[in-house]
Write a structure and sequence with these properties.
Elements lengths: L4 H5 L2 H20 L9 E3 L1 H10 L21 E3 L14 H34 L3
Antiparallel strand pairs: 1-2
Helix pairs in contact: 2-3, 2-4
């Protein structure tokens, strides 16, 4: 029986891709903290994850059941500054660093979950040895 890796790995592969993209965006914000007129951007990670989860096949037994919806995820959005600067830069270094660390923890957790899934598959292939 062939293994479908998209099903086996679940949403973790998509979460890693979204986390990697968000890390790039946040690091660009941090790098441009002193650039006049730079507009801080971010990705709505929760919306990206929901969109990835909605692509999972769902069987509905009634027309009244809610099926998966196609929500656009991973859209770059402008961050609303807490305190705008005179030069038009909207980067708040403390917020960006905090979000970067939060994203790093989520990325690390997804790697751990994905590693556990891979170990489980290897264990099944080896026959539990």
């Amino acid at each position: 029986m062939p293994i479908n890796f998209d099903t086996a790995f679940g949403v973790h592969g998509d979460a890693l891709a979204a986390g990697s993209r968000r890390a790039k965006v946040l690091s660009a914000n941090i790098a441009n903290a002193d650039t006049p007129g730079y507009q801080a951007r971010d990705i709505d990670f929760s919306a990206s994850l929901r969109a990835a989860q909605d692509t999972i096949a769902v069987n509905t037994t009634s027309a009244a059941h809610i099926g998966p919806s196609a929500k656009p995820g991973g859209q770059l959005l402008y961050r609303t500054p807490l305190q705008p600067s005179v030069d038009g830069n909207t980067v708040d270094a403390h917020v960006e660093k905090s979000e970067f660390m939060r994203n790093s923890v989520l990325y690390s957790a997804n790697l751990t979950f994905l590693g556990a899934r891979i170990n489980g598959l290897l264990n099944a292939i080896r026959g539990g040895q």
